[in-house]
Amino acid sequence: MRELVPVPMQDSMGDDVYSGIARAAGLLWCGRERADAGAGNSDTVFVYFHPSSNFVNHYALTPTAALGVDAVGVVTRYGGNDTQVILENCLADIGSVIRHLRDVEGYRKVVLVGNSGGGGPAAFYQSQAETPTVRDAPGGGGTDLTKATLPPADAVILLNAHAGRASLLSQWLDPAIVDENDPFRRDPELDIFVDRGDALDRGWVREYRAAQLARMERITAWVRAQQTELDERHGGTVPDMAFTVHGTCADPRFFDVSLDPSDRDPGTLWGDPVSANLRPTTPGSTTTLRSWLSQWSVTDSNGYGPDCLRHVSAPVMVVYATGDKGCFPSMARDLYDSVRHPSRKLLPVKGAGHYFEGPSHLLTGAVTEMVDWALGV
Predict the structure, then answer these.
(1) How far apart are CA 361 and CA 166, in angstroms?
(2) pLDDT by residue (tens digit) across 105-136?
(3) Is the whole-model pTM more than 0.85?
């Protein structure tokens, strides 16, 4: 039976949470499915995490519990609000959850599972839990992780995860947009939404990638200039401001699957690329100055998974679906290859999609291997 678990936060929610009720309560609400509610908690617990998605009803909770391991789906202070995410505050929330599960609920072994956009932040969490160094978010408004309570997880699993939110967006940004206020003013030489044949020219792709990074750097420079102007105009009383980023779903790999070969079909997790690119549903389309620097800027974000994993001593498992249209095999290999010790495992799940669409045995088989591995390390 699914139950809600209230977790006291270790610090104030501050002004980056829309709900005043949530701020006043100072609680994170997580979903838990027990292996055997009548017998109390299991010895081990899996903690499924994403910085902004509501994981109370995560698809893996039930199959994990069916294997004798309690499963908890985390909802951070940013549940359902991708706009304001500051990764450093998400880490404080994970720390609150792990502390509560160990000290109050009595779990002996905690396995942190970073799913999808939770992969990079989970690696970031474990690296800081083992050796804290970050004292604030890149743009301010973040938790001092050297003073926060961050109990290390006993093992880390990265499930259908990309390398990090900034890395992902840098490869998804539409470089044909030449005016941030007008997504229809486009550079035809960089427009991927025209017929370029079945296979994209590799030289053109290299130019496209460089233009994507250049656009990201232009946005980052604008963000820093806006922060300066806010300080000058308001003397620090207005700490942040929202803005829109158009064209956030234009990765060449959505069109040419041979660029990162897998079992996937062309297209995106949100359907047709033209529609997905301009709809405000894809990562990074609405954000704030501080949030951009923390989670979306490749030159500023602390949440790049491969860099973080190089400093992690805990066992690491990387699981990826070969039919995933959002997280590709190269991302899984980058995460796996960055682990500097032998206690690591790479598991491809052939034919599964990002959300394990398809036959149910694809999910149950993957979770079985995850649980068997975690109990053995």
Answers:
(1) 33
(2) 999 999 999 999 999 999 999 999 999 999 99
(3) yes
- Identity of residue 97: V
Angle between helices 202-234 and 165-172 (to 10 degrees): 120
C-alpha span between 61 and 13 (Å, rounded): 27
Q: What percent of the chain lies above the pLDDT cut of 70? A: 100
Q: What tokens does 296 get?
A: 């979306």
Q: Are 298 and 307 in contact (CB under 8 A)?
A: no
Identify the CA nearest to 242 among candidates 278, 212, 284: 284
Whether 12 shows a pLDDT value over 90: the answer reads no
Q: E strand or H helix at 346, and its extent?
A: strand 344-349
3-state secondary structure of 253: helix
For residue 173, give every residue at least 6 positions away whose Cβ sits within 8 Å of its Cβ, in sequence order, or none: 212, 215, 216, 245, 247, 248, 250, 284
Alpha helix ranges (H) inside 33-72: 61-65
CA-CA distance, 55 to 58, in Å (whole number)?
Answer: 5
DSSP 287-338: EEHHHIIIII-TTT-S--HHHHHTT--S-EEEEEETT-SSS-HHHHHHHHHH
Distance from C-alpha of 362 to C-alpha of 209, rounded to nearest angstrom:
34
Residue entry with tokens 């800027």: 297
Q: For 323-359, write each residue's pLDDT tens digit.
A: 999 999 999 999 999 999 999 999 999 999 999 988 9
The 8-class DSSP code of residue 285 comes to S
Distance of CA 103 to CAs 13, 89, 99, Å? 22, 21, 6
